[in-house]
């Protein structure tokens, strides 16, 4: 009975705005170290006993997931694509159905893609305990020993130890995120644990309990799986059926109702990195308690988290604040107000600010592009194409383009001719011409695109042929 890592990558990480946004959420960022959170998560489940992972993600993120796994040398992953976010229960049902097609007795290790764990060997010790109970038909979660009266986490009340699974306890009840006074009482009592959101169970057990307590979820997901389209490592779930599934968490759908719930108490340096305050707690601090990332200069600062994604950020005389600088937004707040970032993002959404959900740099399957300058009837972009990748064969009705290669090598297909461009060479693409850009080289291709015309929107693209199935 192999262990199948199941990585849930459907979150948007709103409370880590402006770094984490819907189009490029926190699991794809290197928040701690050089690997992204998705890569760190996948790296905890490799080696003897583990199969290749199953990743459940938003359809829009499919190529980000595939590329980051490839960069981390994680091969053979199956990527389940959600046409719409429906919370964790439908996502887990889809993963369990996929695995049960071949091996219903295999154990699923369900993990969020965006959590931090400092002590991976201790995590594996806890996993070994959980496996004993899971193979006996239990659904086991990991309860983190609390270190503070945290109001941002749900809590678990642990009961007596299971007689046939040493180190595994009955799960007596879940407690919703408490207020500060209640959290202090739970911490002082010593019987309560933080809810980590990790679970261990066989595919058969999960499906049986989902069928018992959330049959409408199972029915919708079975139909979505039957209608799924499979393309290489991608499994694209049927859109109408999956979107009809109730949006419900696995905690509410199953774990709060089942008699099979168990918990392994663990002390593994876990954090869900759900806020900038949590990231400060998990980060490496200097002598004055500051956590600094990127080009930052501090004078008389204390207890601050300061992160810059490119622009030099200076801080003088501030204490216990968060300052985050990206290329199109700046966040500044007291660290104690970290949970209020969601309110700010909600306001940005209400006023239809694009910064609420999108970065200036937009990621595509072939690479990325970034707007540099926009004026009346013209726009300048930087385009980066990964080695061996190419854009769709396309044309525009309202704009002409001029491409200048900054570094790398490009093959430009223009109205039936192939043009080889090297550094400092350029090509003109008149309005209406059929064209395509390709990087045949071994290094990234960077070029500057100058657009001119009456309409410069991204929807003025007529795709004629596309490697990534977007036609």
From TrEMBL:
Keywords: GTP-binding, Isomerase, Nucleotide-binding, Nucleotidyltransferase, Transferase. Residues 298-348 form the MannoseP isomerase/GMP-like beta-helix domain. It catalyses: alpha-D-mannose 1-phosphate + GTP + H(+) = GDP-alpha-D-mannose + diphosphate. Pfam families: ManC_GMP_beta-helix, MannoseP_isomer, NTP_transferase. Residues 353-466 form the Mannose-6-phosphate isomerase type II C-terminal domain. InterPro entries: GMPP_N, Man1P_GuaTrfase/Man6P_Isoase, Man6P_isomerase-2_C, ManC/GMP-like_b-helix, Mannose-6P_isomerase_type2, NTP_transferase_dom, Nucleotide-diphossugar_trans, RmlC-like_jellyroll. Signal peptide: none annotated. It is an enzyme of class 2 (transferase). It comes from the Bacteria. Its EC number is 2.7.7.13. One of its GO terms (molecular function) is GTP binding. Residues 5-287 form the Nucleotidyl transferase domain. One of its GO terms (biological process) is GDP-mannose biosynthetic process. Belongs to the mannose-6-phosphate isomerase type 2 family. This is mannose-1-phosphate guanylyltransferase.
């Amino acid at each position: 009975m192999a262990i199948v890592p199941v990585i849930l990558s459907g979150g948007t990480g709103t409370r880590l705005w402006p770094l984490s946004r819907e189009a490029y959420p926190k699991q794809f960022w290197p928040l701690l170290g050089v690997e992204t959170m998705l890569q760190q998560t996948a790296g905890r489940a490799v080696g003897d006993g583990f199969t290749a992972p199953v990743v459940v993600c938003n359809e829009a993120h499919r190529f980000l997931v595939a590329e980051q796994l490839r960069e981390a040398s994680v091969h053979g992953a199956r990527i389940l694509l959600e046409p719409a976010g429906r919370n964790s229960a439908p996502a887990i049902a889809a993963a369990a159905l996929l695995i049960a097609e071949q091996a219903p007795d295999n154990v699923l290790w369900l993990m969020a893609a965006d959590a931090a764990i400092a002590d991976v060997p201790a995590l594996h010790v806890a996993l070994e305990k959980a496996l004993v109970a899971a193979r006996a038909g239990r659904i086991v979660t990991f309860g983190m020993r609390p270190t503070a009266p945290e109001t941002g986490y749900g809590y678990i009340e642990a009961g007596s130890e299971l007689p046939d699974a040493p180190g595994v306890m009955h799960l007596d009840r879940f407690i919703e995120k408490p207020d500060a006074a209640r959290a202090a009482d739970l911490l002082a009592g010593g019987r309560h644990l933080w809810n980590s959101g990790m679970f261990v169970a066989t595919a058969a057990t999960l499906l049986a309990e989902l069928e018992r307590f959330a049959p409408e979820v199972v029915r919708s997901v079975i139909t979505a799986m039957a209608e799924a389209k499979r393309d290489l490592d991608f499994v694209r779930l049927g859109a109408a059926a999956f979107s009809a599934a109730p949006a419900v968490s696995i905690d509410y759908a199953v774990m709060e109702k089942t008699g099979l719930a168990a918990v392994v108490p663990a002390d593994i340096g876990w954090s869900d990195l759900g806020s900038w305050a949590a990231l400060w707690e998990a980060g490496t601090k200097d002598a004055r308690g500051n956590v600094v990332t990127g080009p930052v200069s501090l004078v008389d600062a204390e207890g601050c988290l300061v992160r810059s994604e490119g622009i030099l950020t200076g801080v003088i005389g501030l204490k216990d604040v968060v300052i985050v600088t990206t290329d199109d937004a700046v966040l500044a707040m007291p660290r104690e107000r970290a949970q209020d970032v969601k309110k700010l993002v909600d306001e940005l959404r209400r006023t239809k600010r694009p910064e609420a959900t999108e970065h200036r740099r937009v990621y595509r399957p072939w690479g990325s592009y970034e707007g540099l300058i926009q004026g009346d009837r013209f726009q300048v972009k930087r385009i980066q194409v990964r080695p061996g990748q190419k854009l769709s064969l396309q044309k525009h009705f309202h704009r002409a383009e001029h491409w200048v290669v900054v570094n790398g090598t490009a093959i430009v297909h223009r109205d039936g001719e192939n043009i080889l461009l090297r550094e400092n060479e350029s090509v003109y693409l008149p309005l209406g011409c059929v064209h395509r850009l390709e990087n045949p080289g071994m290094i990234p291709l960077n070029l500057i695109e100058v657009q001119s015309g009456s309409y410069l929107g991204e929807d003025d693209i007529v795709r004629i042929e596309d490697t990534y199935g977007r036609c």
